[in-house]
Fold this sequence. Notes:
Elements lengths: L4 H7 L3 H14 L5 E2 L9 H15 L14 H5 L9 H15 L8 E4 L2 H12 L1 E4 L5 E8 L18 E3 L3 E7 L2 E8 L2 H5 L2 H4 L3 E7 L11 H13 L4 E4 L22 E6 L11 E4 L2 H15 L5 H11 L2 H29 L4 E4 L6 E6 L6 H10 L2 E2 L1 E2 L18 E5 L4 H21 L2
Parallel strand pairs: 1-14, 4-5, 4-8, 7-12, 8-9, 9-10
Antiparallel strand pairs: 2-11, 3-4, 6-7, 10-11, 12-13, 13-16, 15-16
Helix pairs in contact: 3-11, 5-11, 12-14
Bound molecules: pyridoxal-5'-phosphate.
Amino acid sequence: MKFSKFGQKFIQPTGISQLMDDLGDALKSDKPVNMLGGGNPARIEAVNELFLQTYQALGNDGSFNNSDETNSTATSSMANYSNPQGDAAFIDALVGFFNRHYDWNLTSENIALTNGSQNAFFYLFNLFGGAFTDEQNESVDKSILLPLTPEYIGYSDVHVEGQHFTAVLPHIDEVTHDGEEGFFKYRVDFDALENLPALKEGRIGAICCSRPTNPTGNVLTDDEMAHLAEIAKRYDVPLIIDNAYGMPFPNIIYSDVTLNWDDNTILCFSLSKIGLPGVRTGIIVAAPEVIAAVSAMNAVVNLSPTRFGASIATPLVENNAIKDLSDNDIKPFYQQQAKTAVTLLKNELGDYPLSIHKPEGAIFLWLWFKDLPISTSELYEILKEKGTLIVPSEYFFPGVDISDYKHAHECIRMSIAADEQTLRDGIAVIGEVVRGLYDGAK
Ligand SMILES: Cc1ncc(COP(=O)(O)O)c(C=O)c1O
């Protein structure tokens, strides 16, 4: 069968699709696996309990045939399509929630729903990256500017044609964490960013960052965010902030930072990392013209976005339970997991050149094995053979030629969402293999 160019772009094997298949196959094998590789959220008792209660309440509300959108109850909403912008009751609940907590003065024209935030990035990167016609009627190819790589793997292949990223490598600062040495933190290289020809020549369509960042757990500071917002305004492009792990839910963020919005900012949220990745619900907060564009794309691609996640989350947003759960259960859980994993790693590799990105949020640790005698893609293969799965760093640099950038081949992403025994077993294997590699090179 012959597929169009559009089709070919999506079906050609990408590094990440191969890696994801690999992770999936390893889990299906009969050998035990220490899964430190995926992006699934942890199973947290309090979270599961609340979702189960809410789910049961949906089943009991007895209003399946109610088709009155203005008086929608949970099950009635599932029996009807919403308009393409998304479930109106959930959007109203979100407007109230954000205005209560942040005073942003939103209206329902500022929010659209998508089928997961991955779906939102597909829309946004194709709205703001790719071929444009400029004022002189000339064609201009614009990119999405990633001000700090490493960045989220899932951005890599979402453009319908080619890849349109311009990315900036980080400053690497040695820092302490809880009074201990052996940590580093990435910072935005604003000199490099401000001097990018693509920015100066009008070939950037939007700026985007995840905060906290997948894969590193870095949280861009308020100063860095204010500087990015200023650059975005100066060049008249939107600043897209990916809050998949951020404030106010799931709030897996340990540094003291704030979240701001204005009509040049596009905030993306998700229900996935609070523990509901299967309901596929993403939320975009933006200026009305962006919301109208996203709604139009929803109409073509989905008719209307799924309402199941919206139904579960509406009462939790109305009564703030989603925020309480994030602050009191989800955030402390991952903070403790990060602490445990750091202690285990220091025990295994304290005398070796391991440096850990300061854990500031998200559900990962990012480990740097400086001058490791092999690349971390090769390390990945050895660890896989020994039943431990991680993700090597080379996948996290969309828009950068990393052939001469050694650091991009020396790091790994390790999930901390697994139970403690899996963390212990997996880290023991990483320790044994990495010690052997450094010792062998002496
Ligand atoms: C930084 C980041 N953004 C977006 C997503 C997409 O999540 P979802 O489509 O489940 O909302 C993920 C998923 O892992 C992520 O890590």
